[in-house]
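Example 9 (inverse folding). The structure is encoded as follows.
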């Protein structure tokens, strides 16, 4: 499979560079999804377009088990600073997270599998809007799942490029691999007045200061040290003049977790932190935007991908994945079937300091046949039992 994948490396690069030059954001993936759907139909896949607004679902094979392979397609609202010949032609949009290569490698795996006699079915999930959510707070994985993309799936797998690891390596580990994420937002309400007479006010900055201390103590003093979790404050806004104490202060942040019980405990502790405001004579409003669940790699699926990597690349080139609380909505698909994601080493010489979401992010394209081959070979092995 690795040999076959290298044989189509020119097509992989051509697809990837085309997507890189024409990045699209969120659910507005009209050009990208059309190209993907057209290519899959040429390969003989049964294709559904506009799933989850602008996603593509394509299936091949008959009967037996069903494995899904997911690739995200959306770009980021970033102005690219690279000067490569395939630089983004859409100012303010850039594939700075490798989704262009994810899409190209999944197309390559689809091409290889279209030539195989399969012992079951393979379904490709080309997903929009992994980086953000729509006006109802739903990501592409949520939208596609709601429209039946995961119906009947036995296993689901995916990959993500990793610019910190060398070409020729992959990493994967069972268990929590990335965090679930929610955003929180609050209004701290006091009583405004003149800065010269603070005794006649209820200063919302004073109230907010106590909340900040309480929030920062939640993880270190209320959550079990063996349960990974994070609460971060992202913005504080209030006031309009140096001698006026305002009526209110707005504060927003994020929380990360890998366990649902911890998730609910954090909710309770954040509320407890804001209750300090009422003790001190103020009031507050607190709300949440619920994001994606944590990504928990299934043990069996992880071991299958791990063994595939060892057989194709050598044992020394399959490494343990470094866990992170960064968010990835692939966990939405794993609510419906056991699955796992591996990371693909794509480190490019001269770009070691330009990590995911950086305006100079790029990949070493020699990694693409490797990612393609592992997806295709792993799918075959799942179907063969």
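The amino acid assigned to each position is listed next.
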């Amino acid at each position: 499979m690795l040999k076959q994948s290298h044989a189509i490396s020119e097509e992989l690069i051509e697809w990837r560079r085309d997507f890189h030059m024409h990045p699209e954001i969120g659910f507005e993936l009209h050009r990208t999804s059309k190209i993907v759907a057209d290519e899959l139909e040429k390969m003989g896949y049964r294709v559904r377009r506009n799933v989850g607004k602008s996603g593509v679902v394509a299936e091949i094979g008959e009967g037996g088990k069903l494995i899904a392979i997911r690739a995200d397609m959306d770009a980021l609202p970033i102005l690219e600073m690279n000067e490569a010949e395939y630089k983004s032609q859409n100012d303010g949009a850039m594939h700075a997270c490798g989704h262009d290569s994810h899409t190209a490698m999944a197309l390559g795996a689809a091409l290889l599998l279209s030539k195989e006699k399969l012992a079951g079915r393979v379904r490709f999930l080309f997903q929009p809007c992994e980086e953000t959510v729509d006006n109802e707070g739903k990501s592409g994985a949520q939208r596609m799942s709601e429209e039946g993309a995961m119906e009947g799936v036995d296993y689901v797998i995916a990959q993500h490029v990793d610019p910190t690891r060398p070409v020729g390596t992959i990493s994967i580990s069972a268990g929590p691999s990335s965090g679930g994420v929610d955003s929180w937002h609050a209004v701290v309400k006091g009583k405004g007045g003149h800065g010269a007479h603070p005794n006649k006010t209820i200063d919302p900055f004073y109230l907010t200061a106590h909340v900040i201390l309480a929030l920062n103590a939640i993880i270190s003093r209320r959550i079990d040290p063996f349960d990974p979790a994070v609460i971060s404050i992202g913005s504080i806004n209030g006031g309009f003049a140096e001698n006026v104490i305002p009526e209110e202060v707005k504060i927003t942040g994020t929380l990360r977790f890998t366990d649902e019980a911890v998730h609910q405990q954090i909710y309770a502790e954040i509320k407890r932190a804001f209750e300090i405001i009422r003790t001190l004579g103020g009031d507050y409003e607190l709300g949440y935007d619920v994001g994606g669940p944590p990504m928990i790699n299934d043990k069996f699926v992880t071991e299958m991908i791990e063994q595939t990597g060892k057989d194709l690349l050598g044992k020394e080139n399959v490494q343990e994945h470094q866990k992170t609380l960064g968010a990835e909505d692939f966990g939405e698909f794993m609510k419906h079937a056991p699955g796992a994601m591996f990371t693909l080493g794509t480190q490019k010489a001269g770009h070691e300091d330009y990590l995911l979401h950086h305006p100079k992010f790029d990949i070493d394209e020699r990694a693409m046949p490797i990612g393609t081959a592992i997806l295709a070979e792993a799918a075959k092995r799942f179907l063969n039992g």
